[in-house]
Specification:
Length: 772
């Protein structure tokens, strides 16, 4: 029997949810292509009635390993309707009456992680993994033909989780509620975009099942997405001072004049607006197909994959004929690594660093050269109203020595045009022209179709309500036999004559940063105003990492103001305006820097912890943030924040402290900023706010006068990759972090900063063993 890949919850008689392991012994290998559609049917609420259901569907590869260790890859039609998931061998819309081979309910403990690119059937696909947060042994995977489709499926599963949460909050059975870790707060339901009352929203993703076949048969081709990202600025104020020094073929070349004052190296970037989605541009840059790269890349076109370490990190070998650069007399080769990430705002970042690899030693007839460290950043912009053309901003940034650069930027005679840095900057111009010459890469099918009648596909809620049970999603796709045969009884075609109305995506304005305004927390709103403040001396609290006296100290921490961070203002829901943060609500008392054998939860219960001291027990409230850092050895960076009054139970902070884990995951936000350090690390970490509960596994522990949040950074392959890069430079980094609760309703705005910390050049060897 095969252990398959994706997850589903079984709902038994009486509405009780249970976990059932199905087998897929009667599943057949499929071949087809990645046609992904999202069908959304929404009303004014997220309700579980027939008028408030989201529907997503499309073709995916269902991949896994069977019981005898053989890998399998089946083409499957996946459909998500509300909180229900179904998997078919054929499209049920084209084959009325067909029964799903797997079906189930998405439970609230479902975790979805993007694993990046992987070879599947000789093609490059983007893999999504599913697992149960309470039982990580139940895992499964599906493969999508493009990064954009993977992103859409992740959004689909997130919608389904919200649907399940809201239906339970409206009064499901007692046993259903007991299946969740904690009771759901009835007053706080997810905010959903409203489309049309009682209608179904259909969005096509990808180019049909033929796309998967083309990719697995080495025919190439780029998948596209119809989604738009909101172009947004970073959420931390950076110290870069970019000056445009030249414009070549519509491409701006800018220099960071603040960073180049030392005169030894220049940090330069080329910027262009491209008529294509960020998903498309990302795949063009990552594609190693020589025939395609020859059309836009003047220096790194002949590339060969050496090693792929995970879905977000690989090593590449390249050769170059110097006849186009008269400065070189012999053929050159080079090795570099690529790391890529997709932020929660949809921005792609690709890091390219020179490397040495044992599989590619020096080659006879070639001179080994070093490619300059560089980064790509691809950010989608809002399309104009009624436009089918997506737009994105491409930024290619690199560092190099200033020889030849200064005369060139002054329009003097220079040999800079014959150097590697110039050819790398010129890649942006080549990429823009290449995409412009290929309309299929630019066109984005962004139309949305509403149907006034519901389509009769055999996927109604009654299919589940009448059945003996439904599987948890991580069960039915993570391994089970088909619950139904392949028999298909013909039925009369449903009435599909409902009138169709075409709408276009709405373009949201990008507001300017309101730097002169600030958002200060309303202490009387978040903390209990009826209790007099508790006076405590922060100096009586000490952690294993010492507090710095000034900015020049190393291996220490300080607590900066929130003015270096941009957060949601009072009018954010209307105009997306962000304002400068103010002083944090909570006081940072101490920081512990522990060395541990493995990731350690509930660290507040340890006798060495500040919470267990006599002084700590007297504090009204303590927020403990335990950042679990994967390394050899593992580390725990523990931050202790305190308030001088108890938390107001009716405030946003109160609802977070005593709320459900799902509510906390959707609101717990962190904004990072590398104040000082290597620019590559700055680009990798970024400055965008991150919902930690969506990016990595977070566990919450509420007891007595404290709430502990254990952040397992190692639970995400992307986070592990980024933290590995950071640890390599940590002794030269100054890192600022801001912690806050995301505001989503008008009454919760403006946002405020819960706490901040600045980590000054921390030394890993200074960490103390937790058990000593």
């Amino acid at each position: 029997m095969e252990k398959t890949t994706a997850f589903i919850t079984e709902e038994g008689d009486g509405g009780q949810e249970r976990e059932v392991l199905l087998d897929s012994s009667n599943g057949s290998n499929g071949s087809g292509n990645g046609d992904h559609k999202h069908r959304h049917k929404t009303s004014s609420s997220f309700g579980g009635d027939e008028k408030g259901i989201f529907e997503f569907f499309g073709w995916v590869y269902h991949i896994g390993v069977n019981s005898i260790g053989h890998e399998y890859c089946h083409l499957r039609f996946l459909l998500i309707k509300g909180k229900y998931v179904m998997m078919y061998k054929r499209d049920p819309h084209e084959n009325p009456g067909i029964k799903p081979i797997r079906k189930g309910v998405i439970g609230p403990t479902l975790m979805v992680e993007e694993l990046g690119r992987r070879k599947v059937n000789d093609g490059d696909f983007y893999v999504i993994q599913f697992y149960n947060r309470l039982n990580e042994s139940k895992k499964g995977e599906i493969a999508c033909s493009s990064a954009g489709e993977a992103r859409k499926w992740m959004e689909a599963f997130d919608h389904a989780k919200q649907q399940a949460e809201y239906e339970l909050s409206r009064g499901g059975s007692t046993r259903n509620k007991l299946s969740m870790e904690t009771d759901i707060d009835l007053e706080h339901r997810p905010r959903v975009k409203r489309y049309a009352h009682g209608l179904k929203k259909l969005i096509r993703i990808g180019k049909g099942p033929e796309m998967l076949l083309r990719k697995t048969s080495n025919l190439g081709g780029y998948g596209t997405s119809d989604g738009y990202f909101e172009g947004q600025f970073g959420d931390a104020i950076e110290a870069h001072e970019w000056k445009c020094v030249r414009t070549i073929n519509g491409i701006r070349i800018l220099e960071d004049v603040a960073d180049s004052k030392n005169g030894k190296a220049a940090l330069v970037k080329a910027v262009a607006l491209v008529d294509a989605s960020a998903d498309t541009v990302f795949e063009v840059i990552l594609n190693l197909d020589r025939r395609k790269r020859y059309e836009w890349d003047t220096v790194t076109a002949d590339l060969e994959l050496i090693d792929s370490y995970d879905g977000h990190y690989d090593a590449v070998y390249g050769i170059y004929d110097p006849k186009y650069l008269t400065q070189w007399k012999s053929k050159r080769d080079f090795v570099f690594t690529r790391q890529w990430f997709r932020g929660q705002d949809g921005t792609y970042t690709i890091l390219q660093l020179p490397a040495v690899h044992k599989k590619r030693p020096s080659r006879s007839g070639y001179k080994r050269t070093t490619i300059n460290p560089s980064t790509w950043e691809i950010r989608s912009l809002n399309a104009p109203m009624g436009s089918n053309i997506a737009k994105c901003l491409i930024t290619h940034m690199l560092e190099f020595h200033t020889d030849g650069w200064l005369p060139w930027k002054k329009n003097s005679c220079s040999k800079f045009e014959n150097t590697i840095p110039y050819t790398l900057l010129s890649q942006v111009a080549g990429l823009k022209e290449y995409i412009g010459a290929n309309p299929s890469l630019s066109y984005e099918s962004s139309s949305t179709v509403f149907q006034s009648k519901l389509s009769d596909v055999s996927t109604s809620n009654s299919d589940f309500e009448d059945s003996d049970g439904q599987d948890e999603f991580y069960d039915a796709i993570a391994g089970g036999s088909s619950s139904s045969s392949e028999d298909e009884e013909s039925e009369d075609d449903p009435d599909k004559k409902g009138r169709k109305i075409k709408l276009k995506n709405v373009s949201w304005a990008i507001s300017s940063l309101a730097l002169k305004r600030s958002s200060a927390p309303d202490v009387n709103k978040e903390l209990d105003p009826s209790v007099p403040p508790f006076h405590f001396d922060p100096s009586q609290f000490n952690g294993s990492l010492c507090k710095g006296k000034d900015e020049t100290d190393s291996n220490c921490w300080t607590s900066p103001s929130g003015r270096g961070f941009m957060i949601r203002g009072k009018t954010y829901l209307r105009d997306s305006a962000k304002v400068m943060g103010s002083d944090p609500l909570l006081t940072l008392l101490a920081v512990d820097w522990f060395k541990v054998d493995k990731a350690t939860d509930k660290i507040a219960l340890h006798p060495r912890c500040l919470v267990q001291t006599d002084a700590g027990k007297k504090l009204p409230f303590i927020l403990v943030i335990n950042l679990e850092v994967p390394a050899k050895p593992n580390y725990s960076l523990v931050l202790y924040y305190a308030s001088d009054r108890p938390v107001n139970k009716n405030s946003l902070l109160g609802r977070f402290v005593d709320g459900t884990d799902m509510f906390r995951d959707a609101r717990f936000k962190l904004i990072p900023s590398i104040v000082e350090g290597y620019w590559i690390v700055k680009r990798a970490v970024g400055t965008k706010a991150c919902l930690l509960g969506k990016a990595v596994t977070c566990k919450y522990f509420r007891l007595d006068n404290f709430l502990e949040i254990d952040v397992d950074i190692g639970s995400s392959s992307v986070a592990r990759s980024v933290i590995g890069l950071v640890l390599g430079y940590v002794t030269s980094l100054v890192v600022d972090l801001a912690i806050l609760i995301e505001a989503k309703e008008e009454s919760e705005l403006p946002e405020y900063i819960l706490g901040t910390v600045r980590l000054n050049r921390v030394k890993p060897e200074s960490a103390v063993p937790l058990n000593d």
